[in-house]
Hints:
The structure holds 2 protein chains of 2 kinds. By secondary structure, chain A is an alpha/beta fold. Chain A has 10 helices and 10 strands. A 6-stranded mixed beta sheet of chain A has the order 6-7-8-3-9-10, sandwiched between helices. In chain A, strands 2-1-4-5 form a 4-stranded antiparallel beta sheet, covered by helices on one side. In chain A, a hairpin with a 2-residue loop joins strand 9 and strand 10 (233-238).
Amino acid sequence: xxxxxxxxxxxxxxxxxxxxxxxxxxxxxxxxxxxxxxxxxxxxxxxxxxxxxxxxxxxxxxxxxxxxxxxxxxxxxxxxxxxxxxxxxxxxxxxxxxxxxxxxxxxxxxxxxxxxxxxxxxxxxxxxxxxxxxxxxxxxxxxxxxxxxxxxxxxxxxxxxxxxxxxxxxxxxxxxxxxxxxxxxxxxxxxxxxxxxxxxxxxxxxxxxxxxxxxxxxxxxxxxxxxxxxxxxxxxxxxxxxxxxxxxxxxxxxxxxxx
Amino acid sequence: xxxxxxxxxxxxxxxxxxxxxxxxxxxxxxxxxxxxxxxxxxxxxxxxxxxxxxxxxxxxxxxxxxxxxxxxxxxxxxxxxxxxxxxxxxxxxxxxxxxxxxxxxxxxxxxxxxxxxxxxxxxxxxxxxxxxxxxxxxxxxxxxxxxxxxxxxxxxxxxxxxxxxxxxxxxxxxxxxxxxxxxxxxxxxxxxxxxxxxxxxxxxxxxxxxxxxxxxxxxxxxxxxxxxxxxxxxxxxxxxxxxxxxxxxxxxxxxxxxxxxxxxxxxxxxxxxxxxxxxxxxxxxxxxxxxxxxxxxxxxxxxxxxxxxxxxxxxxxxxxxxxxx
Lengths: 259, 325
C-alpha cells in the first residue's frame, strides 16, 4: 500500500475551449499507491483532465507535476515514459493488430535497440524481441487474455477489449494508471471481475490509480478518495461516505429540488 | 556466423542467376521486363513503408526516385569515370569496376534522396492525411520542374549517355535488401511502432511511441530506397528524362501498393510485378491496352477492396528464417 513513487499533483490547472471553461482552477493530488475516483455528470470535464495529464492538451494555466517533474507541455510519449499510462473512454485499441502486438507496442519504450538494429535484425534487436515477447505474454496471462493472444483486437468482445486496454497500459510500466470509464458497457459480472482486477494490479504493480467511472457501485466500493467535478470545477473531495452525503454533489447529479 | 553464411549464400545465388539468366531467356525484351519488375518492386515495397506500415499518404515517390536517378547518373558520368578508367588500367575486370562504380552511385543517389526525405518529412509529417498528400505532391513536382530547368543535367532534353552498368545482379540484390529490411522491421519493435501509428496515432503516442520520429524515419528510409531504384533505372536505360518522373509515376507506384494490399510486403511485390507485366502483356490489343488495364484495376478493387493480400503476409519458410535470424 505504501509503495514509493512520485505523486501526481495538479496545481490550479485550467483549460478553455473557445468560450467553454472545460476545467477551471483544478487542484488535485494523487499519492503513490492511492486509488482516487474522479466523478461528475456528463460534460463535467473529467476526460479533459485525463487529456491534460497525459499531454494531449496543454493547460492554459496552472502546473501539473509528477514527482519533481513538471509535465505540462510535454509530448504524450514523454509523459508515458515518465510513468503515467491511460486507457480511453472509447477504447482505442490497434484494431487490426493481434492482442499480443497491442501489448508489445506498449512495451516499446523498454527496447534498447535502434531503428538500424530493427532494419537488419541484429542480435540486439532479437534480444529486445525476446524480452518484449515474454513480458507481453506474461501480462496477457495476468489479465487472462492468453487464449486470444493471436486474435485481432477488433474481434474481441467488448469486455475483453477493455481488459486488453488495461494490459496495454500496464505494459508501459506505469506508476500511475488513469482509467477512463473502464466499466462502461460491462455487465454486472464483468464489472465485479473488473473491480477485483483493478485492486489486484494496483497492489501487484504498486500503482496509483485515478479512475473515472459512472458506475457508483464501483466508485464507492474501491476508491479511497473521490473528487467530484461539475462544469469543470471541483465541488467536493473526500472519502466515499462523505461524498455520498455531500449536498453539492447531490445537487450536481440530481438537481436543485432534491438537495 | 550464420548470418554471414546466409548473406554469402544469397550473393552467390544472385550471381549464378545473373550469369544464367541471359542464357535461359535469350529474348532481351523479356529480360527488360524482368528488370523493370525488379525496379518497380523496390519502389512499391519502399513506398509501402510509409503508406502501408505507417499509414501516411505520400504521393511524391517519383520525386525521390528522380533525385536518386539524376544524382547517380551525375556521379558515374562526371565524378567517377577517372576512377573507373584507373581500375580498368590496373587490370580490374570491367564487371567489377562497373559494379563498384554503380554501387557508389547507387548509395550516393539513395543518400541524397534520403536527405530530401528528411527535409520534406521534418516539417510536413506533423500534417495528416490529405494535407500530407498535397505537400508530397508539391514536392514531387518541384523536383521535376527543377530538373527540367537545370541545363547542366540536360534539362528538358534529358540526360543521355549514362553508362549501362545495371544488371540483374544489382537489381535483385536491392530487391532482397528492401524486402529483407521490410520484413525485419515488421518483426521488430520499431515496425510495430509504425503499425501502431497507422492504427491509432493518439493511442500510439499515449503508449510511448514518438510518432513524429517514426514517421520521419519511415519517410527517410523509404526515400532512400526510392533513390536506389532511380539510380538502378538511370544505369539501365542510359537515358533520363524529367518526363519519366511525373505525378503519374507516383500514382502508378501507389496503385501497386493499393492493389497489393496496404501494409503487405508480399502484396506489394506481387502487385508491382503484375502491374509491370500487365501493360506489356496487353500490347497485343494495341489501342485498347490502357482501357483494359484500367478496367482490370477497377474489377480487382471491386472484388478485393483491401487488395490482393489485405494487410496479411505470405509467410514462406524462407521469410520466417530471415525473421528469426
